[in-house]
Write a structure and sequence with these properties.
Elements: H1 5-32, H2 43-97, H3 104-125, E1 146-148, E2 154-156, E3 164-168, E4 171-174, H4 179-182, E5 194-197, E6 206-207, E7 211-212, E8 224-230, E9 235-241, E10 248-249, E11 253-254, E12 260-263, E13 267-272, E14 280-284, H5 295-307, H6 314-374, H7 378-402
């Protein structure tokens, strides 16, 4: 096979061009520290690098979400701790207000103090996470969830939703709780039955707290009404179960002050004093308590009762006693509800912290894998660079020598 001089020169020039291009590529990898300049350098590796980059971006977003969620749940936890402290103060004040030796002026002073506790609760209920997002507003977190009406009552203007933030591929947490679930209601589970006296009572009957004798009784969540009748010399009472279908009423029974009155098959309550004919008392489940289950209306009722003079008026005095009993049970239900929600918030906080550790580990591993895939191995690449450089230098020198070979050199020497 004969090769012409032109073909020989083209072959050598093409080979040297390839070596120069390889040198340029290796130099670029050394100077940039990146081995994957284009997908053509390593198609499989480039595809893996794209996937790792997407994973890294996702993990980075999860880390941001986790930081945001943790700040929110920690702010809510602190707010609920403050709420619990205020409610504890309210309970202590209610016990003090029940002291029969207090004068009307003393009870008025306690009412002022209770008003201060109420105002603190309103402020806490409108807490935000520091970024302007209200913790207890539900999904409508840009507006204060609790507002005061012209008559002074507190209304909830948020919604019942909760803001969810995704902290992992298959995990999300709530950034807050709806204020309606924290301050305006109580759950059936864990709430005590609420005793109350009828607003039109004219006797001196006082109702006690409810005693549960059988926690499994089906009638424990029923609404009962105790109605007094008979004569002053021989008072009687009946118990009506309004929740039964149809409602049932017991036969009239003789009344003894302080004696237990059976409510269904699982509860009892005591009435002391001298109720008048027609006086009524009610025992209702916590969520359906008379006057509302929200803490603000409960405090408003107790404040109004403490401001009412009772000195020298036995009926007013027992009315105050009944109001404080009802309010105390309601406040206790709210405290248990807040404690339950606070436990849930603590669980969310621990979940976010655990996912932060997992995400950090995954991010470090992903970054390491991406670096191993795309970074330049300096030792290997520099060795290749020197090898190609030496080969190119040798090829250039050989080309110079070979291009002088010609038969014309042997003619007319």
């Amino acid at each position: 096979m004969r090769i012409s001089s032109a073909q020989f020169f083209q072959l050598n020039v093409s080979q040297m061009n390839d070596q120069q291009a390889q040198l340029a590529q290796l130099y670029q990898q050394i100077s940039s520290g990146t081995s994957l300049q284009t997908p053509a350098d390593n198609p499989v590796g480039a595809a893996q690098a794209v996937q790792l980059s997407m994973t890294s971006a996702t993990l980075s977003q999860y880390a941001t979400n986790q930081t945001t969620a943790l700040a929110s749940v920690q702010a809510e936890d602190q707010a609920l701790q403050s709420v619990s402290s205020v409610l504890t103060g309210v309970q202590t004040l209610v016990v003090r207000a029940g002291d029969g030796s207090l004068a009307d002026s003393d009870r008025s002073a306690l009412a002022t103090q209770l008003q201060g506790y109420r105002d603190q609760l309103v402020t806490l209920a409108n807490s935000n996470d520091g970024a302007g997002n209200y913790l207890f507003a539900g999904l409508n977190n840009s507006t204060a969830p609790f507002t005061a009406s012209p008559n002074g009552s507190i209304s909830y203007v948020g919604d019942s939703g909760t803001r969810q933030v995704q902290i992992a591929d298959s995990s999300s947490v709530s950034q807050g709780d709806a204020g309606s679930a924290v301050f305006m209601s109580v759950p059936s589970l864990g709430s005590a039955q609420v005793p109350s006296a009828g607003a039109g009572n004219v006797g001196t009957g006082a109702i006690s707290a409810v005693t549960v004798t059988d926690p499994s009784a089906a009638t424990n969540d029923h609404h009962f009404t105790i109605t007094f009748g008979g004569t002053p010399a021989a008072p009687t009472y009946t118990v009506t179960d309004s929740s039964a279908k149809p409602p049932t009423t017991t036969p009239a029974q003789a009344y003894t002050s302080g004696a237990s009155i059976a409510l269904g098959s699982g509860m009892t309550v005591a009435v002391s004093g001298t109720p008048s004919t027609g006086d009524t008392f009610a025992v209702t489940p916590g969520p359906q308590a008379s006057g509302g289950a929200d803490i603000f209306s409960t405090l408003d009722s107790m404040i109004a009762a403490l401001k009412t003079p009772v000195t020298g008026n036995p009926v007013a005095a027992v009315s105050l006693k009944n109001a404080l009993m009802t309010g105390s049970i309601k406040v206790g239900n709210t405290m248990r509800n807040v404690t339950t929600i606070q436990a849930s918030v603590g669980g969310r906080e621990q979940e976010v912290k655990a996912m932060q550790a997992v995400t950090q580990t995954a991010s470090l591993q992903t970054t390491s894998n991406l670096t191993d895939l795309t970074s330049t191995n300096m030792v290997t690449t520099i060795s290749q660079y020197l090898q190609v450089q030496n080969a190119l230098t040798g090829a250039q020198k050989a080309y110079v020598q070979l291009q002088n070979l010609s038969l014309f050199q042997y003619i007319n020497p």
